[in-house]
Amino acid sequence: MAKTTAADQLTVLPEQGIHSHTDHHLCMPEDSRKRAARRLKIARGHLDSIVTMLENPDAYCVDVLRQLKAVQGALAGAGEVVLRGHLEAHVATAATRGDEAEIVDELMEVFKYV
Amino acid sequence: MAKTTAADQLTVLPEQGIHSHTDHHLCMPEDSRKRAARRLKIARGHLDSIVTMLENPDAYCVDVLRQLKAVQGALAGAGEVVLRGHLEAHVATAATRGDEAEIVDELMEVFKYV
Amino acid sequence: MAKTTAADQLTVLPEQGIHSHTDHHLCMPEDSRKRAARRLKIARGHLDSIVTMLENPDAYCVDVLRQLKAVQGALAGAGEVVLRGHLEAHVATAATRGDEAEIVDELMEVFKYV
Amino acid sequence: MAKTTAADQLTVLPEQGIHSHTDHHLCMPEDSRKRAARRLKIARGHLDSIVTMLENPDAYCVDVLRQLKAVQGALAGAGEVVLRGHLEAHVATAATRGDEAEIVDELMEVFKYV
């Protein structure tokens, strides 16, 4: 508990049972959560193989760059899954909850400089 | 054996012990190899924590997107380390070896669509 | 006329006077339209100066790359203005109109491979 | 002359006749200079059409985003032309001039955060 991570901020009091946006309790759609996890596990395996590659003194720079590019593509794919789920479940419905301003601000923050 | 592909270059013949790059035996500078590996291990740890995050039904999309963006930044940082080592050790010296055409072609292939 | 494509949306029938988007008549918020135009005009001026730069036989590659990077940043900034206006005016309100599926699909298409 | 731009820095004293890197006098290969200019003129025409598009109150956000993405692709393409010319003419030959450190540093600066 020494270091507070983003994951810590996600902790929900289960007895509360109500998920409001201002308390960060909008939840990810289960389908996109599972699909994103699956993709990230594949990306992690790929990343592991680059780390192994780098233990070999004969590793060649351009091969490493190519593999890194592939992993970045996989992460971008996982990001698209998460983004689509978010747009469908939370952004498209913002006006019905009345939290449009916060929803748009936090999403634009993620897009900044990308 | 005249032209090696990316896939070929990833395959190391263990009995041979020497990994060749289009027959030039260009190896990654040890310093950039070790620094890139260190950065990728950190990125892998971060990726692990996103996978764990996604096991929590209360995970919030925007938190996941933020973490993914951080990991992508870490991979980009590792890529910069590898690229700098490659430019210094292999590209800047290409004219002294006479393999400019291959060196530039394979590097441009990595940059394509980026 | 049930499904309009991107190409259709760019064509305005002048006699009709109304530009329809998948029959919802969604228009860009005036403020983001004007601010995006202003930014793009600045980017265009910058792009003009790169074209002029390239007429000089003494132009240096890295200076051109730096200027291109600046213009790309300006276009990204204009894109952020347009995206924010779109999220606020059209995406956050989608559930109140009932066109969530189309709104999300067309937005994800823009994000793809980015 | 009130504002010093990157283009100003390119000014070469014609009587000098020697182009050294430290004085920013490495010149762009003519072919890549002309091809990059051609591509940028096309991108500028495309950018013009987006500015015109934005004068229409019926402009639709996603159409603008799509067009911006196309222009950014065109700029990236021009950047690839410039980069390839630079790698061939200046980076691959750096060791023969002895300016590897500067050549790599300035190129890495362009790649940073990209």
TrEMBL record, chains A, B, C, D:
Gene Ontology biological process terms from the UniProt entry: negative regulation of DNA-templated transcription
GO cellular component: cytoplasm
Main location group: cytoplasm
Subcellular location: Cytoplasm
Molecular function in Gene Ontology: DNA binding; metal ion binding
Keywords from the named record: Cytoplasm, DNA-binding, Metal-binding
Gene3D superfamilies per the UniProt record, alphabetical: Metal-sensitive repressor, helix protomer
Record text on subunit structure and interactions: Homodimer.
Protein name in the entry: Copper-sensing transcriptional repressor CsoR
Organism of origin: Deinococcus humi
